[in-house]
Amino acid sequence: MLDSKDFTWRIVNFSKLEEEIYSDAFVAGGYRWRVLCFPKGNEVDFLSLYLDFADWETMPAGWSKYVEFSITIVNQVSGRLSRKFCSKHVFKEQEEDWGFTSFIRLDELHSRRKGFLVDDTLVIKARVTMEAEVPKSAGGPEVAEPESENESKGVPSTPPLSRNKVARTSTITSPCSSIVKLTSKNLIAELSTMTSSGELTSSVNGIPGSNAEHTVSGLVQQQLEKLNEFFGMSLEAISEANSFDQVQQVVLKFAEHNSDPIKKMVLKDLVSRLVEFRDSIPRSLSIIETSSDVEKSTVQATKELEGKLVQRQKQLKFLESEVSRIEEEEMKVEAEIQLLGALREKLVNEKNLTVGEMDVANREASKELGELKGKQLERKQASENKLRAKDRLAQSNASWKLFKENLGL
């Protein structure tokens, strides 16, 4: 029985991290798992990612857990460019973590154009599928492979390893389907050996006698030859010949005539991959053809745009020189403005001083004007008094003379 779990881990401020970091634990198959990340690489110039069995300290001696898992770095600009690798491994004592020391080059990861780091946040997805029991064939060579056509087809530069192990193989050149092809070819070779020795025919349908053995042996040999012929073809050629169903029938006959449960599981896996290939290969071929047409159709447009960009470059250089010239003029005007500002400030100070003096003069003039008006009033009053006194004096003199006349003197 299989138990699968998907987990997503968002690491913020990723570029500031220096030391290794663990994700939160998640449960798959009743056990806790974590993703282990080395932001600066595990002694390499690559991002290092591992699946860690978090419950290893509580496990009894001799424990082991068989797991199929994948780790994906999500491309946040285009999901089709996400980087995904998968592996199969028996986790056990001294090997409680397993993964990819050289997942992706650090310079590629940190490139703004690549789309893996957005707002300094890295998104990692993990999928863990745990078998109820460890298969007898587990523990052999393990191969890392991308699984989805919507993700990068590259491979890590080292095979999957524990964080504490050093890779001894520099590169893996297997594409996604290579592990299935390799397993199937090995199985074919083993089936051929079993056929020649009579081991396979003796267990098929319980048919006794040399005739049944000869019939089954001939059938298996015929199917082997057909499958070898198919393996000599590319997946593209098989798709164009519409032969995936025929290949599937051949594999199903092998599974029917084989009693080994491990080999049956491999053959079942191959059948499921053929079902995937039946859909994915034509779709990939269609994408390639469409992309080629788009490339051809954009050649002329690209040339025209390149010509426009040359003219645009000249225009930008001219405008850049104009901006520089205007900035120089602006600096000169600004200097003149500063000089005029200083002159204005001087004039304002002089004006304020003169206004102050004028205010003092106004007050003095007002005072003097008041005094003048007072003197003028005083003078007028004196003149009036003088005239009245003269009139009285004249009247007195006239009366005096009249008295003289009246006395006849």
From TrEMBL:
It comes from the Eukaryota. The keyword Cytoplasm does not apply. Keywords: Coiled coil. InterPro entries: MATH/TRAF_dom, MCC, TRAF-like. Gene3D superfamilies: Apoptosis, Tumor Necrosis Factor Receptor Associated Protein 2, Chain A (2.60.210.10). The keyword Coiled coil applies. Residues 302-346 form a coiled coil. Residues 4-128 form the MATH domain. Residues 134-168 are annotated as: Disordered. SUPFAM superfamilies: TRAF domain-like (SSF49599). CDD domains: MATH. PANTHER family: MATH DOMAIN-CONTAINING PROTEIN, TRAF-LIKE SUPERFAMILY PROTEIN. This is MATH domain-containing protein.
